[in-house]
Protein backbone atom coordinates (compact mmCIF):
# COMPACT_ATOMS: atom_id res chain seq x y z
CA UNK A 1 0.00 0.00 0.00
CA UNK A 2 1.14 3.55 -0.62
CA UNK A 3 2.90 5.01 2.36
CA UNK A 4 4.75 1.74 2.97
CA UNK A 5 7.77 2.23 0.75
CA UNK A 6 9.05 -1.00 -0.78
CA UNK A 7 12.82 -0.57 -0.91
CA UNK A 8 13.87 -4.16 -1.51
CA UNK A 9 16.85 -4.64 -3.80
CA UNK A 10 14.59 -6.30 -6.38
CA UNK A 11 12.54 -3.09 -6.65
CA UNK A 12 15.29 -0.53 -6.31
CA UNK A 13 17.61 -2.19 -8.83
CA UNK A 14 14.97 -2.57 -11.55
CA UNK A 15 15.58 0.41 -13.80
CA UNK A 16 15.34 -1.18 -17.25
CA UNK A 17 12.96 0.43 -19.72
CA UNK A 18 9.62 -1.24 -20.21
CA UNK A 19 9.42 -3.71 -23.10
CA UNK A 20 7.87 -2.31 -26.27
CA UNK A 21 5.01 -4.77 -25.85
CA UNK A 22 3.84 -2.88 -22.76
CA UNK A 23 1.94 0.40 -22.75
CA UNK A 24 4.20 2.85 -20.92
CA UNK A 25 2.16 6.05 -20.89
CA UNK A 26 2.21 7.76 -17.45
CA UNK A 27 -0.94 9.69 -16.53
CA UNK A 28 -0.51 13.29 -15.30
CA UNK A 29 -1.53 13.48 -11.61
CA UNK A 30 -3.92 16.39 -12.18
CA UNK A 31 -6.08 14.21 -14.43
CA UNK A 32 -6.53 11.71 -11.59
CA UNK A 33 -7.36 14.45 -9.11
CA UNK A 34 -10.06 15.64 -11.51
CA UNK A 35 -11.72 12.22 -11.30
CA UNK A 36 -11.51 12.11 -7.51
CA UNK A 37 -12.99 15.59 -7.20
CA UNK A 38 -15.85 14.54 -9.44
CA UNK A 39 -16.57 11.36 -7.48
CA UNK A 40 -16.53 13.24 -4.18
CA UNK A 41 -18.88 15.84 -5.62
CA UNK A 42 -21.21 12.99 -6.57
CA UNK A 43 -21.30 11.87 -2.95
CA UNK A 44 -18.76 9.04 -2.91
CA UNK A 45 -16.88 9.05 0.40
CA UNK A 46 -13.47 8.06 -0.96
CA UNK A 47 -11.81 8.75 2.37
CA UNK A 48 -13.56 5.69 3.78
CA UNK A 49 -12.85 3.40 0.83
CA UNK A 50 -10.03 1.36 -0.67
CA UNK A 51 -8.72 1.44 -4.23
CA UNK A 52 -6.61 -0.84 -6.39
CA UNK A 53 -4.50 0.69 -9.19
CA UNK A 54 -3.48 -2.42 -11.20
CA UNK A 55 -1.34 -0.69 -13.86
CA UNK A 56 0.53 1.68 -11.56
CA UNK A 57 3.59 2.26 -13.77
CA UNK A 58 5.74 4.78 -11.87
CA UNK A 59 3.01 5.77 -9.43
CA UNK A 60 1.82 8.96 -11.09
CA UNK A 61 -1.82 7.89 -10.73
CA UNK A 62 -1.52 5.95 -7.48
CA UNK A 63 -0.04 8.87 -5.58
CA UNK A 64 -2.90 11.35 -6.21
CA UNK A 65 -5.36 8.52 -5.53
CA UNK A 66 -3.72 8.17 -2.11
CA UNK A 67 -4.59 11.80 -1.43
CA UNK A 68 -8.28 10.85 -1.50
CA UNK A 69 -8.65 7.15 -0.64
CA UNK A 70 -8.16 5.58 2.77
CA UNK A 71 -6.16 2.67 1.32
CA UNK A 72 -4.36 2.16 -1.99
CA UNK A 73 -2.96 -1.02 -3.51
CA UNK A 74 -0.62 -0.33 -6.45
CA UNK A 75 0.57 -3.15 -8.72
CA UNK A 76 1.70 -3.67 -12.30
CA UNK A 77 2.70 -6.53 -14.56
CA UNK A 78 6.15 -4.91 -14.92
CA UNK A 79 8.43 -3.38 -12.30
CA UNK A 80 9.16 0.21 -13.37
CA UNK A 81 11.34 0.83 -10.32
CA UNK A 82 8.85 2.88 -8.30
CA UNK A 83 9.46 2.15 -4.59
CA UNK A 84 5.80 2.67 -3.66
CA UNK A 85 4.66 -0.32 -5.68
CA UNK A 86 3.07 -3.21 -3.77
CA UNK A 87 4.40 -5.81 -6.14
CA UNK A 88 4.42 -7.27 -9.63
CA UNK A 89 1.00 -8.64 -10.47
CA UNK A 90 -0.88 -9.65 -13.61
CA UNK A 91 -4.29 -8.08 -12.98
CA UNK A 92 -5.93 -10.42 -15.48
CA UNK A 93 -4.52 -13.54 -13.86
CA UNK A 94 -3.94 -13.03 -10.11
CA UNK A 95 -6.82 -14.64 -8.20
CA UNK A 96 -5.08 -14.32 -4.83
CA UNK A 97 -5.10 -10.54 -4.80
CA UNK A 98 -8.61 -10.38 -6.20
CA UNK A 99 -9.90 -11.91 -2.99
CA UNK A 100 -9.18 -8.56 -1.31
CA UNK A 101 -12.24 -7.02 -2.99
CA UNK A 102 -11.22 -3.32 -3.10
CA UNK A 103 -13.87 -0.64 -3.08
CA UNK A 104 -12.67 0.78 -6.38
CA UNK A 105 -10.47 -0.23 -9.30
CA UNK A 106 -9.06 2.88 -11.00
CA UNK A 107 -6.39 2.78 -13.70
CA UNK A 108 -5.07 3.77 -17.11
CA UNK A 109 -5.37 0.30 -18.66
CA UNK A 110 -3.19 -1.12 -21.43
CA UNK A 111 -5.03 -0.26 -24.63
CA UNK A 112 -5.13 -3.76 -26.14
CA UNK A 113 -6.64 -5.32 -23.02
CA UNK A 114 -8.63 -2.36 -21.70
CA UNK A 115 -11.92 -4.20 -22.19
CA UNK A 116 -10.62 -7.11 -20.12
CA UNK A 117 -9.36 -4.75 -17.40
CA UNK A 118 -12.81 -3.20 -17.15
CA UNK A 119 -14.58 -6.55 -17.01
CA UNK A 120 -12.17 -7.86 -14.36
CA UNK A 121 -12.45 -4.64 -12.40
CA UNK A 122 -16.22 -4.91 -12.37
CA UNK A 123 -15.95 -8.46 -11.08
CA UNK A 124 -13.52 -7.43 -8.34
CA UNK A 125 -14.57 -3.96 -7.12
CA UNK A 126 -17.31 -3.46 -4.56
CA UNK A 127 -18.07 0.20 -5.33
CA UNK A 128 -16.97 1.04 -8.85
CA UNK A 129 -14.45 1.08 -11.68
CA UNK A 130 -12.91 4.06 -13.47
CA UNK A 131 -10.60 3.92 -16.47
CA UNK A 132 -8.66 6.68 -18.19
CA UNK A 133 -8.92 6.10 -21.96
CA UNK A 134 -8.92 7.86 -25.29
CA UNK A 135 -12.33 9.29 -26.01
CA UNK A 136 -12.52 7.11 -29.12
CA UNK A 137 -12.70 4.09 -26.81
CA UNK A 138 -16.48 4.52 -26.61
CA UNK A 139 -16.71 3.73 -30.32
CA UNK A 140 -16.75 0.34 -32.04
CA UNK A 141 -19.53 -2.17 -32.72
CA UNK A 142 -17.67 -5.10 -31.18
CA UNK A 143 -16.87 -3.25 -27.97
CA UNK A 144 -20.48 -2.13 -27.78
CA UNK A 145 -21.67 -5.72 -28.19
CA UNK A 146 -19.33 -7.26 -25.63
CA UNK A 147 -19.08 -4.46 -23.06
CA UNK A 148 -21.22 -1.33 -23.28
CA UNK A 149 -24.50 -3.02 -24.19
CA UNK A 150 -24.05 -5.52 -21.36
CA UNK A 151 -22.47 -3.31 -18.71
CA UNK A 152 -23.00 0.34 -19.69
CA UNK A 153 -20.85 2.91 -17.96
CA UNK A 154 -22.44 5.23 -15.40
CA UNK A 155 -20.45 8.33 -16.34
CA UNK A 156 -18.56 9.43 -19.45
CA UNK A 157 -16.26 12.32 -18.48
CA UNK A 158 -14.26 13.79 -21.37
CA UNK A 159 -11.63 16.43 -20.67
CA UNK A 160 -12.31 19.67 -22.52
CA UNK A 161 -8.61 20.54 -22.34
CA UNK A 162 -5.92 18.24 -23.68
CA UNK A 163 -4.18 15.83 -21.31
CA UNK A 164 -0.66 15.58 -22.78
CA UNK A 165 0.73 12.04 -22.47
CA UNK A 166 3.99 10.63 -23.85
CA UNK A 167 5.53 7.20 -23.92
CA UNK A 168 7.90 6.43 -21.09
CA UNK A 169 8.04 9.86 -19.46
CA UNK A 170 5.80 12.30 -17.58
CA UNK A 171 6.34 15.82 -18.93
CA UNK A 172 5.12 19.16 -17.67
CA UNK A 173 3.33 20.82 -20.62
CA UNK A 174 4.49 24.21 -19.34
CA UNK A 175 8.18 23.27 -19.53
CA UNK A 176 9.78 23.29 -23.02
CA UNK A 177 11.77 20.22 -24.01
CA UNK A 178 14.49 19.80 -26.59
CA UNK A 179 13.33 18.44 -29.95
CA UNK A 180 16.32 16.64 -31.45
CA UNK A 181 14.72 16.53 -34.90
CA UNK A 182 14.08 20.26 -35.22
CA UNK A 183 16.94 21.30 -32.90
CA UNK A 184 14.61 23.62 -31.03
CA UNK A 185 12.80 23.91 -27.72
CA UNK A 186 9.06 23.32 -27.75
CA UNK A 187 6.38 22.79 -25.16
CA UNK A 188 4.92 19.26 -25.08
CA UNK A 189 1.50 18.97 -26.66
CA UNK A 190 -0.91 16.36 -27.98
CA UNK A 191 -3.79 16.05 -30.44
CA UNK A 192 -5.30 13.07 -28.61
CA UNK A 193 -8.37 13.56 -26.42
CA UNK A 194 -9.01 11.56 -23.24
CA UNK A 195 -11.87 10.80 -20.91
CA UNK A 196 -12.69 8.96 -17.71
CA UNK A 197 -15.25 6.18 -17.98
CA UNK A 198 -16.84 5.28 -14.66
CA UNK A 199 -18.95 2.30 -13.69
CA UNK A 200 -20.66 2.31 -10.30
CA UNK A 201 -22.03 -0.83 -8.68
CA UNK A 202 -24.90 1.19 -7.20
CA UNK A 203 -27.59 0.92 -9.88
CA UNK A 204 -29.49 3.89 -8.43
CA UNK A 205 -26.89 6.31 -9.76
CA UNK A 206 -27.93 7.30 -13.25
CA UNK A 207 -30.91 4.93 -13.13
CA UNK A 208 -29.04 2.59 -15.50
CA UNK A 209 -28.53 5.44 -17.96
CA UNK A 210 -25.14 6.75 -18.93
CA UNK A 211 -24.50 10.33 -17.81
CA UNK A 212 -22.27 12.50 -20.02
CA UNK A 213 -20.47 15.36 -18.28
CA UNK A 214 -17.43 17.30 -19.41
CA UNK A 215 -14.46 17.89 -17.11
CA UNK A 216 -13.83 21.65 -17.35
CA UNK A 217 -10.33 23.13 -17.59
CA UNK A 218 -8.56 22.27 -14.33
CA UNK A 219 -4.92 21.43 -15.04
CA UNK A 220 -3.54 24.63 -13.54
CA UNK A 221 -5.74 24.33 -10.45
CA UNK A 222 -5.05 20.65 -9.79
CA UNK A 223 -1.32 20.54 -10.49
CA UNK A 224 0.82 20.32 -7.34
CA UNK A 225 4.52 21.05 -6.70
CA UNK A 226 6.56 17.91 -7.24
CA UNK A 227 4.07 16.29 -9.64
CA UNK A 228 6.58 16.20 -12.48
CA UNK A 229 10.01 14.54 -12.26
CA UNK A 230 13.13 16.30 -13.59
CA UNK A 231 13.56 16.23 -17.36
CA UNK A 232 15.55 13.24 -18.62
CA UNK A 233 18.88 14.15 -20.17
CA UNK A 234 17.80 13.45 -23.75
CA UNK A 235 15.08 16.12 -23.47
CA UNK A 236 17.34 18.80 -22.06
CA UNK A 237 18.79 21.32 -24.52
CA UNK A 238 22.46 20.77 -25.32
CA UNK A 239 24.91 23.37 -24.15
CA UNK A 240 24.16 26.51 -26.12
CA UNK A 241 20.77 25.21 -27.31
CA UNK A 242 18.74 27.61 -25.24
CA UNK A 243 20.95 30.56 -26.13
CA UNK A 244 20.47 29.71 -29.79
CA UNK A 245 16.71 30.00 -29.32
CA UNK A 246 17.03 33.40 -27.71
CA UNK A 247 19.22 34.94 -30.38
Describe the fold and architecture.
This protein has 247 residues and is α/β, with parallel strands linked by helices. The protein has a single domain (9-246), classed as Rossmann fold. It contains 8 helices and 10 strands. The strands form 2 sheets. Strands 3-2-1-4-5-9-6-10 form an 8-stranded mixed β-sheet. Strands 7-8 form a two-stranded antiparallel ribbon. Strand 1, helix 3 and strand 2 form a beta-alpha-beta unit. The longest helix is centred in the first third of the chain and has 13 residues, at 29-41. The chain is globular and about 55 Å long.
- Tell the overall outline: globular
In CATH, what is the homologous superfamily?
A: Vaccinia Virus protein VP39
Domain module count: 1
Largest sheet: 8 strands, mixed
Distance between the termini: 50 Å
CATH-defined architecture: 3-Layer(aba) Sandwich
Beta-strand proportion: 15-25%
Secondary-structure class: alpha/beta
Order of helices and strands: HHEHEEHEHEHEEEEEHH
Count of separate DSSP helical elements: 8
Radius of gyration: 19 Å
Low-pLDDT residue intervals, each spanning 5 or more residues: 2-15, 241-247
* The CATH C-level class name: Alpha Beta
Average pLDDT over all residues: 86
Please state how the strands of the largest beta sheet are arranged side by side. 3-2-1-4-5-9-6-10
Protein name: Methyltransferase
Organism: Palleronia aestuarii
Summarize the structure.
Helices cover 22% and strands 17% of the residues.
Amino acid sequence: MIGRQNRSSAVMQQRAPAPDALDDFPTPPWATRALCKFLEREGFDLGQQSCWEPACNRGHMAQPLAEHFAEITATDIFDYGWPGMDGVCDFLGAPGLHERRPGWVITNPPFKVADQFIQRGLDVAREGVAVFVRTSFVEGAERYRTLFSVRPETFVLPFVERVPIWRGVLLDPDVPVWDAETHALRKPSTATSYAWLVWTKDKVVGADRTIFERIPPCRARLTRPGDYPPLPDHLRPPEGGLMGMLQ
